[in-house]
Amino acid sequence: MRRQMLDDLRDQPLTTGALCTHFADIDRCTVMQHLKVLEEAGLVIAERRGRERWNHLNAMPIQDIHDRWIGPHAAAASARLARFKQAVEADKA
């Protein structure tokens, strides 16, 4: 559910009410509890505009994780695949 919330916020900020409509099978209080966890983790930034609470995705922590963990692993995997391709092509020749 929290991943879906982050996906929903990826393209544009949404009000809490709009997010609640995406999760019609659970109550508003539960949606707000999940948003609170995401906010405490630094993944969502909440902004009050009058009576509305707008939720924005904070992509920086996700980018930091990518840069620290996923990027180097993806580069290593690509290098292994390139070597494998070269070895297969060498065997064919």
UniProtKB/TrEMBL annotation:
All residue ranges annotated as the HTH arsR-type domain in the record: 1-67
SMART domains in the cross-refs: HTH_ARSR (SM00418)
InterPro entries linked: ArsR-like_HTH, HTH_ArsR_DNA-bd_dom, WH-like_DNA-bd_sf, WH_DNA-bd_sf
Domain of life: Bacteria
Xref: CDD domains: HTH_ARSR
Signal peptide: none
Protein name: Transcriptional regulator, ArsR family
Record organism: Sphingopyxis alaskensis (strain DSM 13593 / LMG 18877 / RB2256) (Sphingomonas alaskensis)
Lineage: Bacteria, Pseudomonadati, Pseudomonadota, Alphaproteobacteria, Sphingomonadales
